[in-house]
Amino acid sequence: KKSIEYSKKFSSLGKLSGSFVHELNNPLDGIIRYVNLALDHTDSDEVAREYLLEAKQGLNRVVKIVRSLFDFSWNLAKEVNFIDLNRTLEGCLFIASDYLSPSNIEVRKELTANLPLIPDYRLKLIFNNLIKNAHAAMKEGGGTLSFSTALKADLIEIVISDTGSGIPESIQEKIFEPFFTTKKIGEGAGLGLAICHETIQRYNGSITVKSKP
């Protein structure tokens, strides 16, 4: 029942998001361009420059939200490529090492070899979102980020865990809902885990959470 409710929300929100992103992109690009031009013609000691920099910072937050909405509303292509799951994960971790290592986060992997190839329904979005969430939970004191992949019957199981601050049981049912977030204003749009949930649905799979503070 919960999955059906999510699917209905994603379907209607996906259509709305796609239209919204299309209408917002062009004027947003223009505003950012003019703000940058204004900064180029403003002296460093002018009060107006401080206002423009504040405006630019706010615009950058809007851009991040728009990109999240684009990911959320992305439609599957007719022709689908097939990918190696482990190789995709390794690629995401290679890029993430730029911010994981400085935060003293150790990565551990137990990856089962020769997994069957799977359709590319933007699995990278899932890995990137979960890696970033784990980093946010451990960046203050470091920790361990673990990955395992396995083939069980005709299903592929992926387990991702971290030693971060954890998720209170009271909100665990809400974390996959669109726009639900525990982050401060400006730090996240609340679409990361919603995108993960929707992507897993395209694989006819399921995503669950086990955690405690």
Characterise the protein shown here.
It is a single chain. With 213 residues, the chain is α+β, with helices and mostly antiparallel strands. The protein is 51% helix and 14% strand. The strands form two sheets. The protein has a three-stranded mixed sheet, with helices on one face. A two-stranded antiparallel ribbon has the order 1-3. Helix 3 packs parallel to helix 4.
Give the SSE map:
Elements lengths: L1 H39 L6 H27 L8 E2 L1 H16 L4 E7 L6 E2 L3 H16 L4 E10 L2 E8 L29 H11 L11
Parallel strand pairs: 2-4
Antiparallel strand pairs: 1-3, 4-5
Helix pairs in contact: 1-2, 3-4, 4-5
Mean pLDDT: 81
Helix content bin: 40-55%
Report the biggest beta sheet as strand number plus sense, adding barrel if it closes.
3 strands, mixed
Low confidence ranges: none
What gross morphology would you assign?
A: globular
Q: In what range is the share of β-strand residues? A: 5-15%
Quote the distance from N terminus to C terminus: 27 Å
Neighbour order of strands in the largest sheet: 2-4-5
Order of helices and strands: HHEHEEHEEH
Total helical elements = 5
Structural class: alpha+beta
Provide the gyration radius in Å. 20 Å
- The strand count comes to 5
What's a concise summary of this model?
The protein is an alpha+beta fold.
Question: Which key terms come to mind for this protein?
Answer:
alpha+beta; 213 residues; globular; three-stranded mixed beta sheet
